[in-house]
Structure formats: structure tokens, C-alpha cells
């Protein structure tokens, strides 16, 4: 049987035929927003050393990688993400000032078979290097908000979390940090109750921990949490989220999630996820990761985000039904 | 409209009883025949499926809430869900079981372990720094030691009567199992009030059901 004449590998994404025009339209809109803000589009390589993703201790695991051994005997992976290669690019450039990169392209991640998932993800995003603090955060948040109208989805939520808040929580529970991490990742209300009654961290922290699995909502929730929060580092993190919120011209669709767990270890400040009610996966994600460039021995800050184009396209198709 | 997927069979019965005690209209469910999709007066639509499928539907956003055993969540590499509540029903546990001689037997080779839950078995022995050979059996796993295809099994133990009837006993407990309420991550953002209403109502009746 000449199966190759009609089958594609299970890893492959189906050819996109009907909505390519729509996809390119969104892409061009994003490109327009990015270049208006002075971002240079970069075409990045498709192959990277596996070490780049694993040896910096960012949280990437080899089981997600499509890899082979090259002529040097080294493991090479298909591009798994854009942020790390762009951080390398910046770290090795003569530029030590601000830098603005944008990118469009696919990343490749192995997914479990037969779950209706594909292994190719089309992303479009930006990295802003060496613009620390609120000014940098505000710049990327503004770009996200300017991008949304061109995506033409009706219901979008932009959810802000804080890696600073999260990292401080882990510090406060000391040896129990792994357990807390698992509980928050699953939002396990029952397990959190057991965790708190088993360890007893004092009234104030106990109450905070118990609230975290469901601690998301609009600005009122953030203000409420700021009133009751007693730890100065936690409060500082919440204050930063509030400052970012206040700095934005539009507050539409912005919510906060204080139980948000960083997807990568290098996150240090605000984190963002964008949701559409038509997509079971986030349509955008990003945040501030001042801990990334130092891993390349460059003491500079970074912030960025990317849109998940496949999920956006799927959501648009669903909304049109 | 909240969409729920429930694991068919025993979990379905226990969860619907609990939801009914929590004040939700479950009459259409109790009176159903072979329908796979049912709507209730509370604006809840329910589908019934195999445990893995419940998680698959949930991760794809077909349903907002799922009721499924911890055994399923432990064994399959799903990751796109929140595990909000332990309903404390359907309690049982994973255990290593074998003939009593297994305890003191010296193995000059890798142990052979039969299980339907190969990931659970593999992870458990790995956590004990033991390298074992896993043999997948789909059911009546006790046949492993009985037929000699394996030295021991990793399986769900409820009363232990099947083990006993075959001369086997629990060697070590692996982990606790009970029924969990899981939620689609994005649905939780858009339908927080409806989902928290179910959580709050359920929390009032959890734990009162130990002998169900």
C-alpha cells in the first residue's frame, strides 16, 4: 500500500485552506501594530541546540522536543519557542540599549497522540529588551490592547497575574513550596484546605492561601486583596499590578488572577493570559521575565507576549458558526 | 448553561446523588434510560462517558465541568484542567498486591508488574528507585500473579475481596483515590459564578456521605 500518497503523520497539523486569508489579515494587522511601535521583525532559525532550551533551567522538558543528533554529535531540536532564541540574539548583539523584536512563525511541540491536539503552533509576538518596570509593561500591554480589535473576537478577557506575588508565596511556605505549586496548578480547593490545616502558617497567610484557588476577578478583587494583604513583598506585587492597570487607557475586559502559576521559571513580574469564550486554550500569553537575560550573562530586563494564532483562528471559526 | 460530563456507572450514581442532596434537580438523570445527553431544570446539560473521555471532552471545551476518578487523572497525561474539589466519594486506593511470599522473595532480575494503570505503576516504582518491567493487562489484573505472567500487580483496591479470593494481599499502598470535580480552565474564567455556585453547594454536602 502506498499510504504516503494520502496519509499525513499524526504530528502534522491539517492544511489550513479555508481561512488562510483571515489568518494573514490578522497577521498583517498585528505586524502593523508591532511596527508602529518600532518593533523590528526577525526571521528566526528553525533548528536550535537542545541545550539552549534545557541547560538554562527555564522549565522546558526534552519530551516536548522534536530532536535529532547532528554531524557534531549534538542534539538539535526544532524551534520550541521564540523567546529563548531572541534572548540569545540580544545577548550576543552589540546593542546594550533598548531593543524591540517581533516575530511570526511556527513552534513545534510534541503532544499526546489521539487527543485532538496538533504539534505545530503558529505564533506572532514581540520581545522588548532593556525597558524595565512599568514603562516597559505598559508598552506591551498597550500593544496587546491595540491588537485586539483586529482579531475580531467578541468576548476577550485579559487576565493579569504576578510572578513576584507567586514567588513570594513560595518563599513564605518554605519547605512546602513544591506542594503549594501543585495545588495552585490544579486550583485544588480541597487539597489547599488540607495543606493549610496540616501546616498552619498563621491566620493571615492561612486565609490568603485558602482564597487563592478561586482568587480571580475584576479590579475590585485586586483592591480587596490589597486591603487585607499583610506581607510587604506581596503587597508590593499587587501594587505593581494596580499601577499597570491604572496606567492603561482602556480597562476593558481586564481581570486579575492571583493564583496564576508562571509557565516558565524566568518570569519575574506581571504575567498575562488572553482568553476567548470560543477557545479552550489561551489566545495569548506573556509577561515580564527579567530573569532570562541574566541566564545569558547579560544583566538586562525583558518583557514580551505572543498571540497563539491557531487558537485564534479556531475561535473565529467557532464564533462564525 | 453549564455543561457537565460524568463518568458512567458507579461515579455517575454517587455524583448525581450528591448533586441532588446539594439541591440540584437530578430527576431527569435518575429517570433516564439510555440517553447520553440530558438537560435538567437548573439549566445544566449532562453527558455520560468513559472516564478518559470525560477529560478529553473537558480539555476540548465541550463541557465546563467533569466528574472523574483520581485514578484516571493519575494515569493519563492530561494537564489542561483544574481539579477544584475532592468529593470524598468513591474512595479506594492504588496498591501493589501479590502473593504473601513476594515480601521476602529475592529477585535476581527485574520484577514483573502487571497493571491496567501502567503510568501509575511505573511512577511508583521509579519513586522507590526500582526498575521494573510493566506488563499491561486490561482487566482481571489478579491473573498476573495467578498465571505467573507477573510477580505482582498495581491495581485499585476497594474491599480487597477479589485479592483475597485469589490468595493475594496488599503489599504496599500507593495512593488514595476518590472522585474529583474538574473544570475547564477557560470556562472557569467566563462562568465563574455558575461554577462556584456548584462548588459551594457541593462543599456543604461533601463528607456527609461516607457510607454511600
UniProtKB/TrEMBL annotation, chain A:
Residues 19-311 form the Class II Histidinyl-tRNA synthetase (HisRS)-like catalytic core domain. Pfam families: tRNA-synt_His. Keywords: Amino-acid biosynthesis, Cytoplasm, Glycosyltransferase, Histidine biosynthesis, Transferase. GO terms for molecular function: catalytic activity, acting on a protein; glycosyltransferase activity; histidine-tRNA ligase activity. GO terms for biological process: histidyl-tRNA aminoacylation; L-histidine biosynthetic process. Required for the first step of histidine biosynthesis. May allow the feedback regulation of ATP phosphoribosyltransferase activity by histidine. Belongs to the class-II aminoacyl-tRNA synthetase family. HisZ subfamily. Heteromultimer composed of HisG and HisZ subunits. This is ATP phosphoribosyltransferase regulatory subunit.
TrEMBL record, chain B:
One of its GO terms (molecular function) is ATP binding. The gene is hisG. This is ATP phosphoribosyltransferase. GO terms for cellular component: cytoplasm. Heteromultimer composed of HisG and HisZ subunits. Keywords: Amino-acid biosynthesis, ATP-binding, Cytoplasm, Glycosyltransferase, Histidine biosynthesis, Nucleotide-binding, Transferase. It is found in: Cytoplasm. It comes from Faecalibacillus faecis. Pathway: Amino-acid biosynthesis; L-histidine biosynthesis; L-histidine from 5-phospho-alpha-D-ribose 1-diphosphate: step 1/9. Belongs to the ATP phosphoribosyltransferase family. Short subfamily. One of its GO terms (biological process) is L-histidine biosynthetic process. InterPro entries: ATP_PRibTrfase_cat (IPR013820), ATP_PRibTrfase_CS (IPR018198), ATP_PRibTrfase_HisG (IPR001348), ATP_PRibTrfase_HisG_short (IPR024893). Catalyzes the condensation of ATP and 5-phosphoribose 1-diphosphate to form N'-(5'-phosphoribosyl)-ATP (PR-ATP). Has a crucial role in the pathway because the rate of histidine biosynthesis seems to be controlled primarily by regulation of HisG enzymatic activity. Its EC number is 2.4.2.17. CDD domains: PBP2_HisGs. Residues 50-203 form the ATP phosphoribosyltransferase catalytic domain. The keyword Phosphoprotein does not apply. Lacks the C-terminal regulatory region which is replaced by HisZ.
Amino acid at each position: 500500500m502506498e499510504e504516503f500518497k494520502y496519509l499525513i503523520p499524526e504530528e502534522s497539523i491539517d492544511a489550513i485552506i479555508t481561512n488562510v486569508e483571515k489568518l494573514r489579515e490578522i497577521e498583517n494587522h498585528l505586524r502593523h501594530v508591532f511596527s508602529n511601535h518600532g518593533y523590528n521583525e526577525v526571521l528566526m532559525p528553525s533548528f536550535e541546540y537542545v541545550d539552549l532550551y534545557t541547560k538554562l533551567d527555564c522549565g522546558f522538558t526534552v519530551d516536548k522536543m522534536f530532536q535529532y543528533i547532528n554531524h557534531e554529535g549534538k542534539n538539535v531540536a526544532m524551534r520550541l519557542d521564540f523567546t529563548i532564541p531572541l534572548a540569545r540574539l540580544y545577548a550576543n548583539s552589540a546593542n546594550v540599549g533598548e531593543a524591540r523584536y517581533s516575530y511570526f512563525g511556527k513552534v513545534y511541540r510534541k503532544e499526546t497522540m489521539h487527543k485532538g491536539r496538533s504539534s505545530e503552533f503558529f505564533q506572532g509576538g514581540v520581545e522588548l529588551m532593556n525597558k524595565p518596570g512599568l514603562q516597559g509593561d505598559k508598552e506591551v500591554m498597550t500593544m496587546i490592547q491595540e491588537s485586539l480589535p483586529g482579531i475580531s473576537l467578541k468576548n476577550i478577557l485579559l487576565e493579569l497575574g504576578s510572578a513576584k506575588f507567586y514567588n513570594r508565596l513560595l518563599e513564605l511556605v518554605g519547605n512546602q513550596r513544591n506542594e503549594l505549586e501543585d495545588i495552585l496548578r490544579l486550583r485544588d480547593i480541597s487539597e489547599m484546605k488540607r495543606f493549610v490545616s496540616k501546616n498552619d502558617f498563621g491566620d493571615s497567610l492561612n486565609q490568603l492561601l485558602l482564597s487563592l484557588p478561586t482568587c480571580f476577578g475584576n479590579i475590585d478583587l485586586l483592591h480587596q486583596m490589597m486591603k487585607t494583604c499583610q506581607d510587604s513583598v506581596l503587597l508590593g506585587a499587587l501594587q505593581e499590578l494596580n499601577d499597570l492597570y491604572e496606567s492603561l487607557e482602556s480597562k476593558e475586559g481586564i481581570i486579575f488572577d492571583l493564583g496564576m502559576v508562571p509557565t516558565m521559571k524566568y518570569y519575574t513580574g506581571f504575567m498575562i493570559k488572553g482568553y476567548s469564550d470560543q477557545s479552550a486554550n489561551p489566545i495569548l500569553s506573556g509577561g515580564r521575565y527579567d530573569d532570562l537575560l541574566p541566564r545569558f550573562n547579560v544583566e538586562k530586563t525583558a518583557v514580551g507576549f505572543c498571540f497563539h494564532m491557531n487558537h485564534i483562528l479556531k475561535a473565529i471559526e467557532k464564533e462564525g458558526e | 448553561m453549564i455543561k457537565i460530563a460524568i463518568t458512567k456507572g458507579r461515579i455517575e450514581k454517587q455524583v448525581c446523588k450528591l448533586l441532588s442532596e446539594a439541591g440540584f434537580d437530578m430527576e431527569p438523570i435518575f429517570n433516564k434510560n439510555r440517553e447520553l445527553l440530558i438537560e435538567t431544570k437548573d439549566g445544566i446539560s449532562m453527558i455520560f462517558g468513559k472516564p478518559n473521555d470525560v477529560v478529553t471532552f473537558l480539555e476540548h471545551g465541550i463541557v465546563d465541568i467533569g466528574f472523574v476518578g483520581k485514578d484516571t487523572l493519575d494515569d493519563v497525561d492530561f494537564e489542561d484542567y483544574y481539579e477544584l474539589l475532592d468529593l470524598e466519594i468513591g474512595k479506594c486506593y492504588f496498591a501493589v498486591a501479590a502473593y504473601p511470599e513476594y515480601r521476602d522473595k529475592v529477585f535476581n532480575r527485574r520484577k514483573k508488574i502487571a497493571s491496567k494503570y501502567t503510568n501509575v505503576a511505573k511512577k511508583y516504582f521509579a519513586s522507590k528507585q526500582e526498575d521494573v518491567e510493566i506488563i499491561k493487562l486490561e482487566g482481571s489484573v489478579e491473573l498476573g500473579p495467578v498465571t505467573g505472567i507477573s510477580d505482582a500487580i498495581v491495581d485499585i483496591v476497594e474491599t480487597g475481596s477479589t485479592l483475597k479470593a485469589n490468595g493475594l494481599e496488599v503489599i504496599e499502598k500507593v495512593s488514595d483515590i476518590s472522585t474529583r470535580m474538574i473544570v475547564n480552565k477557560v470556562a472557569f474564567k467566563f462562568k465563574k459564578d455558575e461554577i462556584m455556585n456548584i462548588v459551594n453547594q457541593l462543599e456543604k454536602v461533601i463528607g456527609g456521605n461516607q457510607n454511600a
